[in-house]
Design brief:
Length: about 50
């Protein structure tokens, strides 16, 4: 009667990027600053043109 043994043939390792809470806060602050800068530039352009 044949005997069966478990044999490890290969192992798959996948690396992926995971956003931490700090990364999310940093992105939010960057978007907030970007929005403020755009609004500031538009308001300055309107004042110059009027």
């Amino acid at each position: 009667m044949p005997r069966y043994v478990d044999e490890e043939v290969g192992k798959i390792v996948r690396r992926r990027t995971v956003k931490t809470f700090g990364d999310k806060v940093k992105e939010f602050v960057q978007q907030l600053i970007g929005g403020v800068v755009v609004i500031f530039i538009i308001s300055v352009a309107i004042k110059i043109l009027s």
